[in-house]
Specification:
Blueprint lengths: L1 H7 L5 H4 L1 H8 L7 E3 L8 E3 L12 H6 L3 H5 L28 H16 L17 H20 L7 H24 L8 H25 L4 H7 L1
């Protein structure tokens, strides 16, 4: 990911410079599609529902070196979940056994068949299924979200950009809560239970303070600040 971010900063490559904006646009949508228009309308690409997520690994030094404060205030980092930024490396386990539920495997294979059948034309793919929270889960999330919103307002003038992190925390948490919900159900869940919301909110509560510390230590406002921190 550090190498990718470094290449995106290449001012001579217009296509790569546009990629962070595209990634932010594809991060989430309610009912508004993302359209890439071409001279011939038949070549247009229309993605009606998009909640893009991707996974990447890298070296922390290379990752931070290629970030600027605008990546924080502009919301690029706020859409990311950054793990193990300053933690000691654990000794590798000798054996890892993963036995996913068969229903979950089949659901993922079904998605793969949809993509292949339509040759990448997402307009003909089925609309996504909406999974609602249980009443208890919704109440817990609303209470937690209110606290995040207060912190966003509290830090709105802070130059380190942490207000942008809190602004996206609720959306990140709702996305995260779907993961344990799917895992617990072994397939498409009927709803998002309280324990899934608690897991996601707890994870965000642990990650945000660590992220803020890392941003302050590694992201610079100008060249002089970067040299000083280095």
């Amino acid at each position: 990911i550090g190498d990718l971010l470094g290449s995106l900063k290449n001012k001579n490559d217009v296509a790569k410079n546009d990629l962070p904006k595209i990634l932010k646009s594809l991060y989430s949508s309610t009912a508004r599609g993302e359209i890439k228009a071409y001279a011939e309308a038949k070549n247009n690409v229309n993605i009606p529902w998009h909640h893009l997520s991707f996974y990447a690994t890298g070296v922390p030094g290379d990752f931070w070196r290629n970030l600027s404060i605008s990546d924080v205030t502009g919301g690029f980092i706020a859409r990311a979940l950054l793990f193990s930024l300053d933690l000691l490396a654990p000794f590798p386990r000798e054996e890892v056994v993963i036995d996913p539920p068969p229903q979950l495997v089949e659901a993922i294979r079904k998605l793969n068949r949809i993509e292949r059948r339509h040759q990448g034309n997402l307009m003909t793919s089925p609309a996504p299924r909406m999974v609602l929270k249980t009443r208890e889960a919704k109440e817990a999330f609303t209470s937690w979200h209110r606290g995040c919103h207060e912190l966003q307002n509290e830090h709105r003038h802070n130059p380190d950009g942490r207000a942008a992190i809190y602004a996206r925390a609720a959306e990140n948490t709702q996305k995260l809560a779907l993961i344990p919900a799917v895992s617990l159900a072994g397939g498409p869940p009927e709803n998002v239970p309280l324990e899934s919301v608690r897991f996601a909110a707890g994870l965000m509560d642990g990650m945000i303070p660590r992220l803020v510390v890392q941003m302050a230590a590694n992201i610079s406002h100008n060249e002089q600040d970067a040299l000083r921190k280095r």
